[in-house]
C-alpha cells in the first residue's frame, strides 16, 4: 500500500536512542493511516514518551490545544480539505505553538519540498519509509 510505512523498520531492537530525561515528553502524531499510527505509538510509548494521535488536520488542530505536545509529527498527505502543510501552518499560527517543533513526514524522497516545509512553519521533513532510527533521531534532536 503506497500510504504505508515500512513497519518492519520500526522494530525496537538495537536502537541507539533512549528517552531523554525524567520528564515525560508529549508527542503528537498526525497520521491518517490507522496501522501506521498504531505501530508508531507502540514504539514511542515503549521508549517512555506520552503520545497523542490525530487522524486528520482538523483533529490535530483541536487535540494540539487540548494536549499541548512538545513535538508534533505530521504526515503531509492527510486529506484534500486540509493537508499536512496546511495543518502545520495553522498550528504554528497559534502563539502557544510558536516554539513547538513540527516534523513533516512525506510519502517518498521525491516529495521533498524545502520551500513548502519552511512556509508551513515545520522545522524539517523526513520521508517514508520511516525507520526507527530516523524517527528517534528527530525526537532526540528536537526534545533535547
Strand content: 15-25%
CATH homologous superfamily identity: Response regulator
In what order do the strands lie side by side in the largest sheet? 2-1-3-4-5
Structural class: alpha/beta
Please name the CATH architecture.
3-Layer(aba) Sandwich
Low-confidence stretches at least 5 residues in length (pLDDT < 50)?
1-20
Distance from N terminus to C terminus (CA atoms, Å) equals 34 Å
Radius of gyration: 14 Å
What value does the average pLDDT take? Answer: 83
Quickly name the level 1 CATH class. Answer: Alpha Beta
Beta strand count: 5
Largest sheet: 5 strands, parallel
Helix segment count? Answer: 5
Shape: globular
The CATH topology, please? Answer: Rossmann fold
Order of helices and strands: EHEHEHEHEH
Helix % is 25-40%
Total number of distinct structural domains: 1
Commentary on this structure:
This protein has 144 residues and is of the alpha/beta class. It has a single domain (20-142), classed as Response regulator (Rossmann fold), CATH 3.40.50.2300. It has five helices and five strands. The chain has helices at 34-46, 57-67, 84-92, 114-120, 132-142, and strands at 26-30, 50-54, 71-75, 102-106, 124-127. Strand 1, helix 1 and strand 2 form a beta-alpha-beta unit.
